[in-house]
Design brief:
The complex is a heterodimer of chains A (about 475) and B (about 450). Chain A is mainly alpha-helical and about 475 residues long. Chain A folds into two domains: about 15-340; about 345-460, Cytochrome Bc1 Complex, Chain D, domain 2 (Orthogonal Bundle). Chain A is built from 19 helices and two strands. Chain A has helices at about 15-50, 55-95, 95-105, 105-130, 130-135, 135-170, 175, 180-185, 190-215, 225-255, 265-295, 305-330, 345-355, 370-385, 395-405, 410-420, 420-425, 435-450, 460; strands spanning about 330-335, 335-340. Chain A has a two-stranded antiparallel sheet with strand order 1-2. Chain A is elongated. Chain B folds into three domains: about 20-185, no CATH class; about 210-335, no CATH class; about 365-440, Cytochrome c-like domain (Cytochrome Bc1 Complex, Chain D, domain 2). With about 450 residues, chain B is mostly helical. In chain B, helix 1 runs antiparallel to helix 5 (about 140-165), helix 2 (about 60-95) packs antiparallel against helix 4 and helix 13 crosses helix 14 (about 425-440). Classes of the chains: A mainly alpha (about 475), B mainly alpha (about 450). The interface between A and B is large, with 81 and 89 residues.
């Protein structure tokens, strides 16, 4: 409404945000939160083994360093950039919401940032001083201690992010309390943390297993020992992850369903929720199977197969993050702002006077027969493009066709009835924000789009129309 | 009310939430953290350019190849710091200039978001270059090409930032630009760019003079011919030359600034900065001429540079503020008017006259409208069958209908499945069912 609305008419904005965010979460959880303690642990075991067999100790140490090297390269490039990228993408996808969130969460993010800076500094020191730490045992001990610090800070970053997420997810909490603290006292804060921590450890194990299997040749005498240790690490965390998943699974609906005021909301939630359960069981079982094999018969681990747990756990986190997003719909900030960027409080005004009249980025004020399709396009842009495209991912035409079939052209009257109460039937969609004329124009536009498909370019390509608003 | 003289200025409403801190604190955080961020960006860009330069010369002179490698080691550290330190100014500019920053981001969106993959790849290239030095010792062409790609990226990406930061100052242009490239050609982007790249070289020169000049840095063990004095001299000369060039790019930048934000205050601040720059030039000149090592004079120069940068940072902010002043006032007025209108709209909702004149409707009808009408019309097929077809199925069987609504089965295979309503209460189910069965759907 108050911003030119960036729009990708094929992939959709949400997918863009999702890809960047999931990539970031996966890298952060596995390669930062999980890798730091795992690598420190391997380095420590290497140090212990050195007392007995210097050669074996050195091999362990070198493997641990190589693992860290991989994590270091990825976290300081793709990891760091996707972290910033979430901001970029979210502010493009929904500027009004990010603009508001940032005012509410400034301190949280500032704290987060300070810890993030420390984390980066620590990982650089830890990695860049590794070779020198091998000069003498005293240095090595210090280095290991440092790894421990790094682990703590990585974990803290996650703990704070989870609080922020929990805060944002809990509809109403912000309206009532307006303090950041409520993020930490949020009922699903601890379940989330209990769940994310072991998952991060497990994922780190799976990735480390994969890398180790590839960098050490089959004949290497220390390979089985290392694989066994890493497998054991996964095995140790698997039950914790299962328990964490269960606790989380148990807590979410109890604190969430109550907040879904419409019957169907619950119904749709249930479907997503069931799919999460399936994915959880599958992933934990795969992790369990691989770690059992690796612990008891490390020599038999087929290295190509090790891709499976890695891919599975990435898919898992992806599903999980999607569920989190879903729970937040139709709001971006509980009871305050809808996902289309319009405030709940502003609805009556727009429903009475119209969206277009109030938007500086639309050339239309009054809808006439001549400008109906143009108006429809602009209403679509304001009301639906944060979640839908014309013909790409989550295409609005396709969604209507799925409901009404393709035998007949889409019926304008039917679509109007649907859109008028879409929030009641599909809770995750906000109510239609405009007036009746706009509803009509939108329905005509969608029908026209079915008849003559034409992509809707975003302002990043075609620019924006600007008009002066009387006030 | 200010009359928008030019009709093409978009006046959006501001975000109706208070700033998290008093504005001046946020401004201070913004300026300080931005300068810190840009310092490391300068070192990253300047460092990579110098690495390329010396590795290129190193094809003939082995010492230069070694020097390139020494400089390369600093880039990867500086680049990591540059990224993390960028978050604080990003946060602050997001809070302080939400409407302006996000609008210009959206208008150049494809390029803006491409920063994420592009910088990631550039960083990966820089790592690849750093860690393949020995492996590719025999294939210098390839090794240099990798670096060239990285440096090229580092040289192009600033355009995206500068274009955005520039576009946000000119709401009157938002209706005209069509994508990144048209925003790039607005006046002032290119002068800003050259000013920035030259600053990168100047700052890197100063930094490397310290880096190679420090006591613990041993040149004899690293190079065959290059001495510490040579290194320091070249780096300081670089700083001197680059700072000298700023006397061309600086005025160019100032003169191409659109006049709407230029004030006398800004002029004096910039002039003060220029004066400091002149002193810096003189001091650098003396230092180079007398072959001084790092000492009192050098610290003086460092201090002067800090003051210079503070002046320029402040000037930058002053220009931004005065360029946006009128627009900010307009926006504040529009926002206030808007919230008045919202209040009125709420009152209208409460007034009975506006409520639809359909008279009272039964609870069953209301429930039907809200929950069923989307999929069922009286006589036509929507998502589900028409009510004229569906209702008679349950004639005299209200329990059956309630059961169906709660947990529908599958009947018509050319229709999708109906969603159930397990959450409706017994009373609500009865109300809807009564309504459905009693109404004449034909």
């Amino acid at each position: 409404m108050d911003f030119p609305l960036f729009h990708l008419d094929f992939m959709g904005n949400r997918l863009l945000v999702a890809i960047i965010a999931i990539l970031h979460v996966v890298i952060n959880h596995s390669l930062a939160v999980g890798f730091a303690p795992l690598v420190t642990f391997l380095e420590f075991r290497g140090y212990q083994k050195k007392q007995v067999s210097p050669e074996e100790g050195a091999a362990w140490d070198e493997t641990a360093r190589k693992l860290l090297f991989t994590a270091f390269i990825i976290t300081t490039t793709v990891g760091a950039l996707t972290g910033v990228g979430i901001w970029f993408a979210a502010s493009l996808a929904n500027p009004a919401s990010l603009g508001s969130l940032i005012r509410v969460f400034y301190f949280a993010w500032f704290t987060e940032w300070i810890i993030f800076v420390l984390e980066v500094v620590f990982i650089m020191i830890y990695f860049l001083t590794w070779k020198r730490s091998n000069e003498n045992p005293k240095r090595k001990r210090k280095h290991i201690l440092f790894g421990l610090w790094l682990s703590i800070f990585s974990w803290l970053t996650m703990a704070i992010i989870v609080a922020i997420l929990g805060f944002m997810m809990d509809p109403g909490s912000w309206i009532n309390h307006k303090t950041l603290f409520s993020g930490f006292t949020n009922p699903i804060y601890f379940p989330q943390l209990i769940f994310r921590t072991p998952i991060a450890m497990m994922m780190a194990g799976c990735i480390a297993l994969l890398i180790t299997a590839y960098i050490l040749k089959r004949g290497n005498p220390y390979r089985p020992g290392l694989l066994k240790h890493i497998s054991f690490w996964i095995l140790l965390w698997t039950p914790v992850a299962a328990a964490g998943a269960f606790i989380y699974y148990w807590f979410i609906p109890r604190s969430m369903i109550g907040n879904l005021p419409v019957a169907l909301g619950t119904q749709q939630f249930q479907d997503w929720y069931d799919s999460l359960l399936t994915v959880m069981i599958v992933v934990v079982s795969i992790g369990f199977a691989v770690s059992i094999l690796g612990t008891f018969a490390p020599r038999r681990l087929p290295k190509h197969l090790l891709f499976i747990p890695v891919v599975a756990s990435i898919l898992f986190l992806g599903t999980f993050e999607r569920l989190r997003e879903f729970i937040r719909k139709p709001y971006v900030i509980g009871d305050y702002m809808y996902a289309n960027g319009i405030l709940v409080e502003e609805y009556p005004l727009y429903q009475q006077t119209g969206l277009l009249k109030n938007s500086p980025y639309s050339s239309v004020s009054e809808i006439t027969d001549a400008n109906r399709l143009k108006a429809g396009e602009e209403v679509f842009n304001l009301a639906c493009t944060r979640c839908h495209t014309t013909h790409g991912v989550n295409s609005v035409v396709n969604r209507f066709e799925r409901m009404y079939g393709t035998e007949n052209p889409l019926n304008v009257e039917a679509m109007k009835v649907y859109m008028k109460s879409m929030h009641n039937v599909r809770y995750y969609m906000p109510p239609f924000p405009g007036n009746d004329m706009e509803l009509d124009a939108l329905a005509w536009y969608i029908q026209h789009q079915q008849a003559e498909p034409k992509p809707l370019e975003g302002p990043q390509i075609k620019g924006v129309d600007v008009k002066e608003i009387k006030y | 009310m200010i009359n928008a003289v030019i009709t093409q200025i978009p006046v959006p409403k501001d975000i109706p939430l208070p700033l998290p801190l008093p504005e001046w604190i946020l401004v201070a955080i913004l300026i300080f953290s931005f300068l810190l961020h840009i310092l490391f960006i300068n070192l990253m860009v300047g460092g990579s350019i110098l690495t390329f330069w010396y590795e290129w010369k190193g094809l003939k002179n082995k010492d230069h190849d070694k020097l390139a490698r020494e400089i390369a080691a600093t880039i990867t550290v500086n680049k990591s710091l540059a990224v993390v330190l960028g978050v604080a100014p990003l946060l602050s500019i997001n809070v302080l200039y939400t409407l302006y920053f996000y609008s210009s981001n959206a208008l150049t969106g494809n390029m803006w978001i491409s920063i994420v993959p592009w910088v990631s790849v550039a960083f990966l290239l820089i790592y690849l270059h750093k860690y393949s030095w020995d492996k590719l010792a025999e294939n210098k062409t390839l090794h240099l090409s990798i670096l060239a790609l990285g440096v090229f990226s580092f040289l192009m990406i600033p355009f995206i930032f500068l274009t955005n930061i520039n576009l946000m100052l000119f709401p009157e242009k938002w209706g005209e630009v069509q994508g990144f490239f048209s925003a790039l050609t607005l006046p002032n982007v290119f002068p800003r760019y050259f000013h920035f790249i030259t600053a990168c070289l100047a700052i890197t020169g100063v930094f490397l003079a310290v880096y190679f000049g420090r006591k613990s840095y041993n040149t004899e063990s690293k190079f065959e011919h290059i001495t510490k004095a040579d290194l320091q001299k070249s780096m300081l000369t670089l700083a001197l030359a680059a700072t000298g060039f700023q006397f061309i790019f600086g005025p160019l930048l100032f003169l191409t600034l659109p006049t709407k934000g230029v004030t006398w205050g800004l002029f004096w601040v910039i002039l003060a900065g220029v004066t400091v720059a002149v002193i810096i030039l003189l001091q650098l000149w003396k230092m180079i001429k007398q072959n001084e090592t790092i000492g009192r004079r050098f610290y003086l120069i460092l201090g002067l540079f800090t003051i210079l940068v503070a002046f320029m940072g402040t000037g930058r902010h002053m220009y931004r503020e005065s360029a946006l002043k009128t627009h900010k006032t307009m926006m504040a007025e529009r926002t206030a008017a808007h919230w008045e209108a919202v209040k009125k709209a709420h009152e209208n909702v409460l007034m009975p006259s506006v409520q639809t004149g359909e008279g009272t409707i039964s609870p069953g009808e209301a429930l039907f409208k809200n929950n069923c009408a989307v999929c069922h019309a009286a006589n036509t097929r929507l998502v589900g069958p028409s009510m004229a077809e569906a209702a008679p199925v349950y004639d005299g069987n209200i329990e059956g209908l309630k059961q169906w609504i709660k947990k529908p089965g599958r009947k018509r295979m050319d229709y999708p499945a109906m969603t159930g309503f397990p959450n409706l209460s017994e009373q609500q189910l009865t109300d809807i069912s009564n309504f459905v069965l009693q109404k004449d759907w034909n």
